[in-house]
Amino acid sequence: MSRQKPQSNVFRTAFSGSPYVGVFARATEDCLLVRPDIGEDLQAACGDELDATVVATTIGGSSTVGALATGNENGLVATSQLTDRERERIEAARDRPVVELPGRINAAGNVVVANDTGAYVHPDLEREAVTAVEDALEVPVERGAIAGVHTVGTAAVATNRGVLCHPKTTDETLDRLEDLLGVPADIGTINYGGPLVGSGLVANGSGYVIGERTTGPELGRIESTLGFVTD
């Protein structure tokens, strides 16, 4: 049986002049965390594309929201630098907990790739941090690298429809991600050949926001992998 696939508009943009939109925003199926200094119209347009509630916030006082937080339908994990005010703002919008990632490696968006089925994390993430991800996201967690990149959140983007990975990802790793996350995995690039796809793509099952330098062929691979191409 073929999957029913949604239609998504091609939405190329930049945040504060940068095409690396994945550094500054993070999406789950129902929520979009985004740096607070982009215009309200752009915030609303991104929220419409992703069919998600927009939460304009910093994380740990930083605008690099996508690098510092990630999550799924069950919860969010964020850097231990998260402030009480930021936590309250996010939890009020989502009605789900935000859990701090303990240990020295805690830029959660950079070191965790997750969907509602599983999570794949930095190979050196400490046991306490792995447990925190398991508890917060309520999914099985495995450690590993992607194309030799330990900051797996920069090297892949996962939704409940697919996983887009660094172009040098091996077939073995793609198979492992498919087994763990329960969706097809493939390779691609962003922003005219950029291999760190997590830095330039924000996506969920409803849509995606991509850096403005991304080419047509790159869009084709993204839409195929993440399930936005109709049969």
Can you offer a commentary on this structure?
This protein is α/β, with parallel strands linked by helices and 231 residues long. Strand 3 (31-34), helix 2 (40-50) and strand 4 (53-56) form a beta-alpha-beta unit. It is built from 9 helices and 15 strands. The model is unreliable at 1-5 (pLDDT under 50). The longest helix has 11 residues, at 40-50.
Radius of gyration: 16 Å
β-sheet strand percentage:
15-25%
Q: Note poorly predicted spans.
A: 1-5
Identify the strand order in the major beta sheet.
1-15-14
| General form | globular
Helix fraction bin = 25-40%
Q: What is the tally of helical segments?
A: 9
**SS content category:** alpha/beta
H/E element sequence = EHEEHEHEEHEHEEHEHEEHEEEH
